[in-house]
Amino acid sequence: MPELPEVEVTRRSLLPFLVGRPVARVKTTRPSYVFVTPPDRIRKALQGRTVQDIDRLGKYLLLRLDDGNSFVIHLGMTGQLFSAMATSPRLLSATARSSLPPEEQLRFKPDPHTHMVFSFDDEGPDVYFRDVRKFGKLFLLAQDEVHPRLERLGLDALEVTGEHLFASSRKRKTPIKALLLDQAVVAGVGNIYADEALFLSGVRPGRRAARITRAESKRLSDAIRQVLQRSIETGGSSISDYVAPDGQDGAYQDERHVYARKGEPCKRCGAAIVRRVVAQRSAHYCPQCQK
DNA sequence: TCTGTCTCCTGAGAGC
DNA sequence: TGCTCTCAGGAGACAG
């Protein structure tokens, strides 16, 4: 699932496929859950425009257009942005792959889950937005517009400080993990990296946020930045559907300490990793290393 | 204001 | 083998 590292890797990888290429045509599927802005308005707004740059705010990608407006993309859980040149088994579901001959299982062809296709004036490849579960979000942002989805975002997770976490957690009865997942507090952290950062800082996910000490807040903020930076370096986590725009898998999943390792031995102490539900989310931790 | 619950969606995997 | 059910998760809406 795309969190800050996967979105940042997508942003960097997408630059050569989008920036500076005049958009000739945009195809979309019918209005659905992914289109915050109606798809016909998106098509009109993008056709003929050129993406000048791509920014990131938390887990949102902002395509800066040459007319001053922006097109905003959130990948949700299963969103994929990739070039038509990309080849990866992750671009099709296992069910879809099983119905195809081996030679056609890697090369992607637009399917019903492909909600947008960008075509360009040059001879270069199209760019696809695909999202099986439709938890992604697509919307236009006018120049100088302040969108409530972006306005509420807290400090970017790569810049989070111990003091910010400590101040944000005072008087909060919610578990510390729920606080980390609150995008209004830290923008960019999701389930995987919250678990990993809590492990590295030695804090259990179910601890009440207000009970976290200043020293623990510092360790936690350091751990958040550390796991996110490391994941970006390794291309993100390809645990389920995530694939970079060039078709490459990330490698951070091989470095996980706790996430989705229920019952496996802790890499530090050997104790079995525990899974429990915290704030309606699965949380994984080491009962020995995390207090 | 804070917290918990529900909702959206669909593929994967478990269980029968 | 095939069917049914449960689970996973980001984030907004809503109720208490």
Tell me what you see in this structure.
- Helix content is 26%, strand content 21%.
- It is α+β, with helices and mostly antiparallel strands.
- Helix 1 runs parallel beside helix 8, helix 5 packs across helix 8 and helix 7 packs across helix 8.
- The longest helix has 20 residues.
- The radius of gyration is 20 Å and the shape is globular.
- The protein binds a DNA duplex (16 and 16 nucleotides) through loops.
Short overview:
The chain has 8 helices and 12 strands.
Task: Please give a handful of descriptors for the protein shown.
Helicase, Ruva Protein, domain 3; 8 helices; 26% helix; DNA-binding
Given as residue ranges, the uncertain stretches (5+ residues, pLDDT < 50) are none
Number of strands: 12
| Total discrete domains | 2
CATH superfamily label of the largest domain: MutM-like, N-terminal
At CATH level 3, the topology of the largest domain is N-terminal domain of MutM-like DNA repair proteins
Itemize the secondary structure elements and their pairings.
Elements: H1 4-18, E1 23-28, H2 39-46, E2 51-57, E3 60-65, E4 70-74, E5 79-83, H3 94-98, E6 114-120, E7 127-131, E8 137-141, H4 148-151, E9 155-156, H5 162-169, H6 176-181, E10 186-187, H7 191-201, H8 214-233, E11 274-278, E12 281-285
Parallel strand pairs: 9-10
Antiparallel strand pairs: 1-6, 2-3, 3-4, 4-8, 5-7, 6-7, 11-12
Helix pairs in contact: 1-8, 5-8, 7-8
The protein binds a DNA duplex (16 and 16 nucleotides) through loops.
